[in-house]
Fibrinogen gamma chain
Amino acid sequence: MASPFLATALLLLFSFSSAQPRGDSVAAACSPNDGFGKYCPTTCGVADYLLKYFPNVNSDLDKMQWDLETIANLTQGAEETIVYMKDSATAAQKSSQSDSYFKKSSSMLDDVLRFEKTIIAQEQQIFELQNLLTSNERRMVDLKQLSMQLQQKCTEPCKDTVEIQPTTGSDCQDIANKGATTSGLYYVRPAKATEQFLVYCEIDSFGRGFTVIQRRRDGSVDFHKDWVQYKEGFGYLSPDDTTEFWLGNEKIHLLSVSTTMPTVLRIELVDWDGNKRYADYTMFRLGPEVDMYRLTYGYYLGGDAGDAFDGFDFGDDPSDKFYTSHNGIQFSTFDKDNDKYEGNCAQQDGSGWWMNRCHAAHLNGKYYQGGRYSEKDAGEFGYDNGIIWVTWHSRWYSLKETTMKLIPLSRITAGGQQAGVKQFGGLGDA
Ligand SMILES: [Ca+2]
């Protein structure tokens, strides 16, 4: 509304001021105007016109002034808004920077969490290690105790763990007669012996006491020994009858000549099929060393193994049986040849035995696992050198187990002969 009026006023002013310096040209340039009349205004006419319009122009100028001030105010507001916005932008920038801080701090938080997890895991490990340490300490304590016990044991002198029974007697039957009921190791002193010696006594449930003079069971002892060794005895005496031995010719001699009662030599045999057989010879006697421990017996008492001591007709020669019998034959070893042969039976067969020319029974022979053997197996001489009882198995069959034992004739039938056979069960795998 103010603008058209203002424009007109300004136009008038311009027109007036430009006309003023030129004076004379006003009329020429005067244009008819309803405000000035039909004619060109004079100075007075213009003044009158100005005076007439001056209050309106003044108020218009005031209005313009006010408008300008309003505009200026608006501008300032805008400026302030811009500044505010700028500030906001800066703040926003700053806040976007703190976002990266947030990111950083959250990654730090992640790190912290990770470290916490690591710490927890390490604490768990430490706990487990502490447990291990504790159990190790306990083990150390146990080990220390064990080593203390061992040290104590080691400081004690070694004890012979072989149990020797307290009962003594002239032989095993004497010991059994005194009430001993357990088989095992005992000291005996036959009447003609100057000192006691150890023997294995086999005492059965009938109160019979056998004095064992020879034992083969597994080939663990080499029976290829010289005269002195056969005289003194060799191998091992065990309280549980698990070892092989030859008691010794001198002891056997003393046992056999110290009693006026007839002594029975019982021979028990086991083959590789576990079969068991026996042979009994009564009035057994072994001569003194000066008679080369000569074997004599009264007669064959019986048994299912047969009488191999009586010799055997091998069919090679009519004199076989005569030259393979053992009754009345002296003892021979490879270093003391007392046989009836031009050669050396004990040397050829690798044993000590009552060699004739040479044998039908040969219980100190070479041990052959499995039993059957041949001339090729028999070494450089190739003779029958196994553990032989030829009235049961051939001379090329070596027995698995043998026992030679002594008992007074009066006790051999105690409990009956059958009982004697039953008691045989002490041998082998029984
Ligand atoms: Ca000879």
Observations:
- The mean pLDDT is 85.
- The chain has ten helices and 14 strands.
- Residues 337, 339, 341, 343-344 surround calcium ion (CB under 6 Å).
- The domain at 164-414 is CATH 3.90.215.10 (Gamma Fibrinogen; Chain A, domain 1).
